[in-house]
Design goal:
RNA-binding; 601 residues; alpha+beta; Gyrase A, domain 2; single chain; eight-stranded mixed sheet
Length: 601
RNA sequence: GCCCUGAUAGUGUAGUGGCCUAUCAUGAAGCCCUGUCGAGGCUUCGACCCGGAUUCGAAUUCCGGUCAGGGCGCCA
């Protein structure tokens, strides 16, 4: 018999029905006579009963009993039975099928399971095994409700996004996975060509150039759930392969792209949560974000800004400040309000914060506590009453507030301030985990200087349309980021559609004429054939979904993720390939392990 | 490349120089039990990441590795 119901759908209304259920044996409880089995599938759990003294007509007690002996944990079984109400007082209110049970009339083991390496029950708070074990046996991990929910949610998100985009005339187009290696940016995963020995494709870091060429090809509205690859080190929110919701539009400006994403998210919100998402999103300039929050993706669920006080304290004879100032540095501070901190930050905690600041590259941290009518600290003596009063005014100091002051080189102070702000918010629980605060980071520069090499780099990428003359010092770029809760969810821009401007940007990035030709010649040529004004954005699907589900890492919303070192613990990739395969590709490995030491000697 | 944290039965853990023949739970195997629901009871099985050092004595201290995770760099 084929299954008639899933393990999550039988209710009181089904009482008396003959059913067939198929699923996994999650738990069984043998009372020496009556026996209960929790049968699980992706939809839920139904309790099965075998009672030797309560056998339905036509059922064979001995054959059922025999089959049940083969029901090991996580075995796949098929059971026929009759739905009945549970004995008075034995309902299970925690389970949506908890009012009914299925009295077994026939049982069969479809596939016996080995004893699982970790416990799969997750009705209550179960103890999760380490992630290594979960990834090694991902197919078992996926049976857990949490994982099933994550993948369903992810699907729902993508499905709703598709619905919105299709309704608005977007066409999903697949761009190639075997593409050209690009010189700038992240490292490529490369794929050897057998037909052209010694040459390689690269897996796409993003469909950037192809989606732009789709616009040149008059596609007008494009989207793709695009897999992207970057051979860089992983993080909790970064995997070697990841998914972007990639969008490109013709005849639009930045506002049109932002409106589209806001519309999309409103639609998704409605579909997933049944709620209205407030738009338009707040906008914050790159400069404000850095100055106030020390981050290009500040968490805006709480305020706690940096308040710059360089001008107020510049004359105070406090040696540390004077040293910093004479080196061209700045002084800034946080006012940790009494309402935020309560009495959570005592002397010991301040010492820990000072350590934190030191680890983040500053010499230390000065602090003051606001008393009834003054500021209390071992360094107040260096500040005149006038300076203290100005400081109190500027930082809006009330009794019980704690001032944390940072001094040092501008960039260092802002970055460390941003880290400290984040830490304070976490320690003091300044935000609600269920709140999602979107914002657009706007007014970005076109270029940034790499502090290590002193080289000029593109702030976003080299295809961003400049918003100012290219001759001035701080060229602006028509790019923007979607940020939420301290994460960057995606970045978009209006693109360059004039080949001469594009060529000029490549030159400004220090790419030689020859390189421009070999690496981007085809693209410059394409721009030359009537490229329409266009722009687009890419949203990180893994990241967004993991934040919405409050998961610590994007691995928890990816069915088969890699570990931190980029390995799949499930199939053991990456692996060596046989020598004859390499030979066919005319590839010779010079990895240390592959070199025969004797040969070298 | 660097920094931080961790590693004890299949799984999750306790254990800060001798009370360790290593705790507890879960699991597995077996037995008992007729209304449980992560059932319960009894019995059994099963572990200190590797190498070196210190010490009379190391799971515990030190050094070096390996593995895992978080972060910096990197991610145009």
């Amino acid at each position: 018999m084929r299954r008639t119901h899933t393990c999550g759908e039988i209710r009181s209304a089904d009482i008396g029905k003959k059913v067939c259920l198929q699923g996994w044996v999650r738990f069984s409880r043998d009372h020496g006579g009556v026996e209960f089995i929790d049968l699980a599938d992706a939809y839920g759990i139904t309790q099965l009963v075998f009672d030797p003294e309560d056998i339905s007509s036509g059922a064979d007690k001995n054959s059922i009993s025999l089959a049940l002996k083969g029901f090991t944990r996580e075995s796949v079984v098929s059971v026929d039975g009759v739905v009945r109400k549970r004995v008075e007082g034995t309902d299970d209110p925690k389970n949506k099928t908890g009012e009914v049970e299925v009295l077994i009339t026939k049982a069969e083991v479809l596939n016996r399971s080995n004893s699982p390496p970790f416990e799969l029950g997750d009705q209550k708070e179960s103890v999760l095994p380490g992630e290594e074990t979960r990834l090694r046996y991902r197919y078992l991990d996926l049976r857990r409700t949490e994982m099933i929910e994550a993948l369903r949610f992810r699907h729902k998100f993508i499905s709703a996004a598709r619905g919105y985009l299709e309704k608005n005339g977007f066409v999903e187009v697949e761009t190639p996975m075997l593409t050209k290696s690009t010189p700038e940016g992240a490292r490529d995963y490369i794929v050897p060509s057998r037909v052209h020995p010694g040459t390689f494709y690269a897996l796409p870091q993003s469909p950037q150039l192809f989606k732009q060429m789709l616009m040149i090809g008059s596609m007008d509205r494009y989207y793709q759930i695009a897999r992207c690859f970057r051979d860089e080190d992983s993080r909790a929110d970064r995997q070697p392969e990841f998914t972007q919701l990639d969008i490109e539009m013709s005849f639009v400006d930045m506002k049109d792209i932002q409106d589209t994403i806001e519309g999309l998210l409103v639609h998704v919100w409605k579909a997933i949560y049944g709620k209205k998402l407030e738009t338009p999103f707040m906008r914050i300039s790159f400069e404000d974000a850095m100055n106030k929050y020390g981050s290009d993706k500040p968490d805006l669920r709480y305020d706690l800004p940096m308040i710059h006080i360089t001008n107020i304290v510049k004359d105070a004879p406090y040696e540390i400040f004077q040293k910093v100032l004479s080196a061209g540095g700045i002084i800034t501070g946080f006012n940790v309000k009494k309402e935020m901190a309560g009495d959570k930050i005592g002397r010991n905690e301040i010492d820990r914060l000072i350590d934190f600041v030191k680890k983040n590259g500053l010499g230390g941290m000065t602090w003051m506590r606001a008393t009834k009518d003054s500021l209390d600290s071992n360094i107040v003596k260096y500040f005149t009453p006038d300076v203290l009063s100005k400081l109190k005014k500027e930082m809006d100091v009330k009794e019980g507030d704690l001032l944390l002051l940072l001094a040092g080189p501008r960039k260092r102070v802002l970055e460390t301030g941003g880290q400290l702000r984040k830490k304070l918010a976490e320690d003091l629980e300044l935000f609600d985990k269920g709140t999602f605060k979107f914002a657009w980071l706007i007014d970005c520069p076109m270029f940034e200087i790499d502090p290590a090499s002193g080289k000029k780099d593109a702030f976003h990428h080299p295809f961003v349309h400049p918003t100012t003359s290219l001759d001035i010092a701080n060229v602006g770029g028509a790019s923007f980021d979607l940020i939420m809760n301290g994460s960057e969810l995606g970045s978009g821009s209006q693109r360059i559609h004039d080949p001469e401007v594009q060529r000029q940007i490549f030159r400004m990035l220090g790419i030689s004429e020859e390189k421009i030709g070999t690496d981007f010649g085809f693209f410059l040529e394409a721009l030359g054939y009537g490229a329409p004004p266009h722009g687009g954005i890419a949203l990180g699907v893994d990241r967004l979904v993991s934040i919405l589900l409050n998961r610590e890492t994007i691995r928890d919303v990816i069915a088969f993720p890699k570990n931190k070192k980029g390995q799949s613990l499930l199939d053991g990739s990456p692996q060596k390939v046989d020598d004859d395969k390499l030979e066919e590709l005319q590839i010779l490995s010079i990895a240390i392990d592959d070199i025969d030491i004797e040969d070298i000697k």
